[in-house]
Amino acid sequence: MSFTKWFKKKGGDGGSISEIGAPTNFQRHFHVSRNQETGDLEGLPAPWVRLMNSQITRDEQDKNPDAAYHAVKYYNYSIKKKENEVFKPFITEDTILRRSKEKRAQKTDAEIYVELRAICNSDDPRERYKTTQEVGKGASGIVFIAADLQNESQVAVKTIDMKNQSSKDLILTEIRVLKDFNHKNLVNFLDAYLLEPEDQLWVVMEYMDGGPLTDVVTETVMKERQIACVCRETLYAISFLHAKGIIHRDIKSDNVLLGMDGSVKVTDFGFCANIEGDEKRQTMVGTPYWMAPEVVTRKKYGKKVDIWSIGIMAIEMIEGQPPYLYETPLRALYLIAANGRPDIKSWDKLSPNLQDFLDRCLQVEVDRRATADELLSHPFLNDCSEVKALVPNIKAAKKVLRRNV
């Protein structure tokens, strides 16, 4: 979970990328078998069995016991953990390789602060940025929209109380990485300031005034050429991240932010997060709707998990929501593991190019799934609108949401 998840709303082709194994920081192993008389899966903790039986029917368990087992296992080890996570670290080649080695010696707080002072701006940010609106608040700090007095632009400022952070070393690592990141389709990190003696870190980010793609998806109807435009811009960002050795792992409409000029930028891969705090759809926190099957079934996975998520996000733009949105998280996990590629209700109404694009994204066999660079040359993206064609939808969504407040 990224920094944005610390705050509650007031009132959300590097071919060398290694594969990531399933979480390994637990020691419990289960020998699971099926009772021939009762049909129950035996060897699982009783709470798991009760949960599974309450949300996955006996017929479904009989039809696909592996999917039921993987779903309940993933839910208990990953989804529940994610709900309580306060920090979402980068997934890079380096961190992947470190997982199989002994834990590195932790830096002391004193060492971390020496390095933070070296890489943070030493000026007082309060002389440059005038905070204008508080948009999120939590135990760890506050998120503001601020005016940049030097160039009269708006920025997002996150004030982080360092004394409350147990992962200061990860914060240090992310600042170092993000200082080298700049791409037109990423919500870019602008600067960081360490305020002493307040013991605060100020992180300054780009501000996207059009809001998340979620608003456009849920409040307007998008045309295919607009869908192609969003997919293309998102894939530019994903291709850049993959070339840097970074897997996003959380592509969805909540994490694609829009400008009032129609610009499209990916967020939530580190500091770059939705400044409105929690995600727009509260029901989605910690939920698996965009997850690739290989993640749910706890197989090794790599950068192509992002491609699957692009396909699911395209379905969002077509149908207004991802598959299984109204299922419980556990049941959604089961359906992803059991069904693989989801059904698309309006399939017959889609153009052949969009159908083929979805086919390339939603291949269950990872080797058959396209890469970001392959999709960028797909015919579906050759006939996309310009980003300015998104502006009417952005304005319409804002109008509807203002009316509903």
TrEMBL record:
Residues 20-33 form the CRIB domain. Keywords: ATP-binding, Cytoplasm, Kinase, Nucleotide-binding, Serine/threonine-protein kinase, Transferase. Its EC number is 2.7.11.1. It comes from the Eukaryota. The keyword Nucleotide-binding applies. ATP binds at K158. It is found in: Cytoplasm. Its main location: cytoplasm. One of its GO terms (cellular component) is ruffle. One of its GO terms (molecular function) is protein serine/threonine kinase activity. Belongs to the protein kinase superfamily. PANTHER family: NON-SPECIFIC SERINE_THREONINE PROTEIN KINASE, SERINE/THREONINE-PROTEIN KINASE SAMKA-RELATED-RELATED. This is non-specific serine/threonine protein kinase. It comes from Drosophila sechellia.
